[in-house]
Amino acid sequence: MRICVINPNTTTSMTDKIGEAARHAASQGTEIIACTSPSGPESIESHFDESLSVPGLLEVIRQGEIEGYDGYVIACFGDPGLLAARELTSKPVIGIAEAAMRIASLISTHFSVVTTLSRTIVIAEHLARQYGVEHLCRRIRAADVAVLELEDPASDSYRRVRDEAKRALVEDGAGAIVLGCGGMADLARCLSEDLGVPVIDGVSAAVKLVEALVELKLGTSKVGDLAYPLPKRFTGQFAHLSH
Ligand code: 5HY
Predict the structure, then answer these.
(1) Protein residues with CB under 6 Å of any ligand 1 atom
(2) Which has fewest Cβ within 10 Å: 27, 80, 94, 148?
């Protein structure tokens, strides 16, 4: 099977890291195609950034349907454009936040999330509520690490993420840690050894969920709100979407 893993921000080094984590998790026979969004912000750290990341990731899905991919991963912890993306395909589309939170709920009765900047905490809180795991998520915490600091080997982002996760174990009584950014995909194994608890990277979790759905021959329902978009005229920069 061929899974397209989309980085909705435009930082190619982060796409490479996300692709590597996805390949590490993928089963033999699964090909991972890691794609960087063709348009949008270099990092997604606000509602504004998230909204402007959506057209680019939807374009990747539209192209992916021509390529004939078997499934998609949206590798940004805000799960931007997830439902719109599901409208464009009958294949499974999994967001890394939903994947990580659901997997965490299978291996712990309480987990905490460690994300990047504190201003993004509310985005993850809304998702935990939307996914119905709010009662299992003790707290969404921020390591106050900017997304692109995760790309800088000289930054002490690992220490800050680790220390915030340690606080989550002590203060929240969390049994597992969910990493709140696609750019943290390479930290999970080290952190889990350091902390002695399961640490969930959403990219790996999402790849495994897409594989499971494809093997179960289950895809996105095309009945109701996730049916293909209705044909209509678009103007301006979206005129090419008219059909
Ligand atoms: C992400 N931003 O996973 C989110 C993390 C965040 O560019 N990739 C980003 O801070 O919400």
Answers:
(1) 9, 43-45, 76-78, 115-117, 120, 147, 181-183
(2) 27
The sheet that has 176-180: what strands, in order across it?
A: 137-142, 111-115, 176-180, 199-201
Gap between the Cα atoms of 59 and 46, Å rounded: 21
Ligand 1 atom with minimal separation from the 76 CA? 3
Tell me: the pLDDT tens digits for 83-140? 999 999 999 999 999 999 999 999 999 999 999 999 999 999 999 999 999 999 999 9
- Using CA atoms, how far apart are residues 11 and 24, in angstroms rounded to an integer? 20
Side by side, the strands of the sheet bearing 2-7 are: 31-36, 2-7, 71-74, 93-95
The verdict on pTM exceeding 0.90 is: yes
Q: Cα torsion for 165, 171, 173, 174, to the nearest 10°?
A: -20
